Here is the input.
Amino acid sequence: MSREEGCSGHTVVISFFLGTIAGAAAVLLLAPQARKESAERIRDFGQDMKERASDYLEQAKDTVSSTVGSGRDFLDEKRSLIQSAVQAGKEAYQREKSKPAHEG
Here is the structure.
C-alpha cells in the first residue's frame, strides 16, 4: 500500500533545502557587518545555492530518466508476453474450431 500519511522523501529533501536557504539568508541579513560585505556574502550564497540546485536538478533528471527507462523495458517485456499469449489463444481457438463436431 502506498503512503497515505507523512511526506515523501523528495518532499522532505526539498523542505530541508528551502529551510536551509531561509535560515542562511536570515543569518546573513541579521549579522552585524558592513552593508557592502553583507551584499557580497548574499550574492556568494545565492550563487552557491544556484549551483547546488542545479546539481540536485541534474541528479533528479538522471534518476527520473533511469526510472522511466526501466519502466519502458518492463512494459515492453510484458507487452511481448501478452501478445504471445493472445496469439497462442487465437491459435488454440482456431484448432478447436476446425475440429469436427462430435454428436452426443
Observations:
- Residues 35-98 form the longest helix (64 residues).
